[in-house]
TrEMBL record:
UniProt-recorded name of the protein: BY PROTMAP: gi|472587665|gb|EMS25161.1| thioredoxin fold domain containing protein [Rhodosporidium toruloides NP11] gi|647398721|emb|CDR42902.1| RHTO0S07e05314g1_1 [Rhodosporidium toruloides]
Cross-referenced SUPFAM superfamilies: Thioredoxin-like
Domain GST N-terminal: 17-88
Gene name of the record: FGENESH: predicted gene_7.153
Originating species: Rhodotorula toruloides (Yeast)
Pfam families per UniProt: GST_N_3 (PF13417)
InterPro entries: Glutathione_S-Trfase_N (IPR004045), Thioredoxin-like_sf (IPR036249)
Length: 255
C-alpha cells in the first residue's frame, strides 16, 4: 500500500496550515513517492491517535509506512525517507549523486543548514500573527484547549489576543525586512533556490512552510510580508511549479 500522510486541518475540509506537515508533504513529492493524505484535527490527535500511536501526545505530521507501521515527527520522517529511499533525490543534497552517504559531514551540515532557515521567519513572530486567525477556524472545544494556559503557558493567549493592529503591523514589517535580507543574500544573483542554485531542497521546504502558515489564514498578510519581495515572489512561483499541490492552495482564503 502507498504511504499515507496524516495532515493537520483546523476542521474537516479546512486549510492545510501546519508547517511541519507541509515539509513532509513536500518531502514525499520530492522523493517521487506515491502517497495518500488523511486529514486529522486537534480533536483527532487528542482523542483518537494518542492511543493508536501509543504515545502521550500525538502530533502531526505522522505517516503510515508501506509496511503498516507509523512514524511521527517531520524531521524523523525526513531522515527515514532519505535512508529508506537512497536512490531517489536526496532531501538535503539535491545536487549530489545517489546514494548519498548519510553519515557524511556534508549531509550533516546540509541538515543543520536547512534547520537554520527556520530563523528566517521566527516561529514566535509568525505565531503572533496566525494564531488569532487560525483560532477562529477551530471548533469550540478545540479552541478552548488550543488557547488555554495549560497548552500555551500562563498569560500567553491573553497577550496575543490583546495585540492591536499597530502591533501586528510592526511584526509584519520586521518579518518583511528579514525576508528581504535573506532573499538578497541567497537569491540576488543566479541562485534559483535558497541552498542550491538550481534545485530545491529541505531548506526551501522550511521557507515555504513559514509562508504557507500565513497564507493559509490571510492572502493580504502573506503578500505584505513575503510576496511584496520580487525575489521571493519569483522563488515562490518556481516552488509551485516544482511541487504541484493544487489541493493545498485551493483551500486558502482569497483575501
Amino acid at each position: 500500500m502507498p504511504i499515507k500522510l496524516f495532515d493537520l486541518v483546523p476542521q474537516p475540509g479546512g486549510v492545510f496550515f501546519s508547517p511541519s506537515c507541509l515539509r513532509t508533504r513536500l518531502a514525499l513529492i520530492h522523493k517521487q513517492l506515491p502517497f495518500e493524505v488523511e486529514e486529522v484535527t486537534y480533536h483527532d490527535l487528542r482523542f483518537v491517535w494518542n492511543d493508536r500511536l501509543g504515545v502521550q501526545k500525538a502530533t502531526a505530521p505522522f505517516v503510515q509506512r508501506e509496511d503498516g507501521s507509523y512514524l511521527m515527527d517531520s524531521d524523523e520522517i525526513a531522515a527515514y525517507l532519505d535512508k529508506e529511499y537512497p536512490d531517489r533525490p536526496n532531501l538535503f543534497l539535491p545536487d549530489a549523486a545517489s546514494p548519498v552517504d548519510l553519515d557524511s559531514a556534508e549531509y550533516s551540515t546540509a541538515r543543520q543548514a536547512a534547520a537554520d532557515f527556520a530563523k528566517v521567519a521566527p516561529p514566535k513572530a509568525l505565531f503572533s500573527l496566525y494564531a488569532p486567525r487560525i483560532a477562529k477556524l477551530l471548533d469550540t472545544e478545540t479552541r478552548a484547549y488550543w488557547i488555554s494556559d495549560a497548552r500555551l503557558g500562563q498569560g500567553v493567549w491573553a497577550y496575543i489576543s490583546s495585540r492591536t493592529a499597530e502591533d501586528e503591523a510592526k511584526v509584519a514589517q520586521q518579518l518583511q525586512t528579514q525576508i528581504a535580507t535573506v532573499t538578497t543574500h541567497h537569491l540576488a544573483s543566479s541562485g534559483l533556490f535558497f541552498s542550491s542554485p538550481s534545485k530545491p531542497d529541505y531548506a526551501d521546504f522550511t521557507i515555504l512552510s513559514g509562508y504557507r502558515l500565513i497564507r493559509s489564514v490571510s492572502a493580504k498578510l502573506a503578500h505584505d510580508i513575503f510576496d511584496v519581495d520580487e525575489r521571493f515572489a519569483g522563488w515562490l512561483e518556481r516552488m509551485k511549479h516544482a511541487y504541484s499541490m493544487p489541493e493545498v492552495w485551493e483551500r486558502d482564503p482569497k483575501e
